[in-house]
Amino acid sequence: MSKIVIQKFGGTSVQDADAMRRAITIVKKHGIKRGIRSLVVLSACAGVTNALIRIGELSLLGKIEQAHKAISDLDQRHFGILHDLHLSLRSEQEASLALRYIWRELRTLVRGVELLGELTPKMKDKLLSAGERASTVIFSHALREDLDDRQVTVHLFDAREFFLTDSQFCSARPQVNEIAKQMKLIGKRLTSGAIGVTQGFIGSTKRGETTTIGRGGSDFSATIMGVALNAQEIQIWTDVAGIYTCDPRIVPHAYAQPFISFVDASTMAYFGAKVLHPETIGPAVEAGIPVRVLSAKEPEKKGTTILTRPTEDIVVAGIAIKRNIILAKASANAMVPQCSTLPIVFNALRTKNIVPLATSVSFDDILLAIEATDKYSELHEEIDKVSKLEFSHHHALLTLVGQGLRYNPGIAAKLFNSLKQINCEMISYGGSENAISFVVSENDVETAAKNIHKEFF
Ligand code: ADP
Ligand code: ASP
Ligand code: MG
Known about the structure:
CATH class of the largest domain: Alpha Beta
Number of strands: 16
Number of domains: 2
Bound molecules: adenosine-5'-diphosphate, aspartic acid, magnesium ion
Strand order of the largest sheet: 3-4-2-1-7-9-10-8
Structural class: alpha/beta
Helix content: 40-55%
Shape: globular
Oligomer: single chain
Distance between the termini: 45 Å
Largest sheet: 8 strands, mixed
């Protein structure tokens, strides 16, 4: 009986034939050993989900020719990847047929959007599912052919047949117990020696309607599948070698933490470290399954292992950054006592389904840091009765994360020392013991991140 590992590859790790070949080498090295079998979970090829969103928008605007042109571009790109993999004629033909079916379905969908003049979340999910379905078709054929001489069977499992979710299209909630039941058969096949390939991000309702679980959700799919299969380990293969002390695109000196606690990794993700989807860690923590973040470009690097309790205590784990933040300020009306303003503001947040990333309350004002993607302007409807509500745009939230923050004196002093030259517009600490967040102007975010990094790492 083999043990199971989950190997999730993100968009850049399957973006072209070279990337797919690298991923196959990784699967062979880290996913197929004596007694180990892998379930490979894939994202769409880099940029494809964005292209599909654009196709939906174009069809809604009635720009149907442009939408069809964009579908043809996707068709060509995927066919190009398939062709560059130099598979046998038979595999290439089989994969092309499956891909053609996906593009045909897209064209029908686009026509439907144009005719109805609407793109419902349900239709959007069907549209978006094309990306992951296409990448897995190509990858599974390439892997199958590569493993042919080892006599390892490769199955392509359609996530829509086992990854059950509720029907909140575009941000559907996975039904963990149902998924575990549905995955039993997959588990049996893997433990008896086969390899599986499937899609992250997509699933279906119990009525068989296609759903997606939110942008970047393939990481989350991978951990849920890992828990359902009682996997030994969940490997997230991406374009960086682990969870870094800060986004390396912003702070080039940032480095990968060899180990990080589940709590710090979740906090980093929640406050903007895009390397993991914020919900990824939850299921793995409950099941105690280690998660490793590794680079598909530099697979020899050790990456980061996320554990319940790393042996080494890390005081400060990293700096997370979220751009595109709005500051919403509710100034209490002199006629309304503050004790009634607070519940009205929080009730408005609940009604509009907005969770502020940071809050600060004083005797006359309530300040909230909100993501600009939220429907923040709708807060007016609820709050205007009791309070003047003002928004200020183009901010960024920086969060210093680490379980040592609470117990090590002097951290706040060091932090603010590093921000001497920067105008800090809001500070929030205490809600999470392992996170101090503050808001600066978008223009200052890079300097602030570099300065703090220099101070702490
Ligand atoms: P994938 O497509 O593999 O899911 P993502 O683009 O979603 O990859 O996530 C990887 C990116 O996350 C990196 O390229 C990096 O720029 C960004 N990132 C942000 N914060 C961090 C961090 N603390 N550590 C590593 N990467 C980070
Ligand atoms: N393809 C999806 C996205 O781009 C899911 C993922 O890659 O995790 O959001
Ligand atoms: Mg991602």
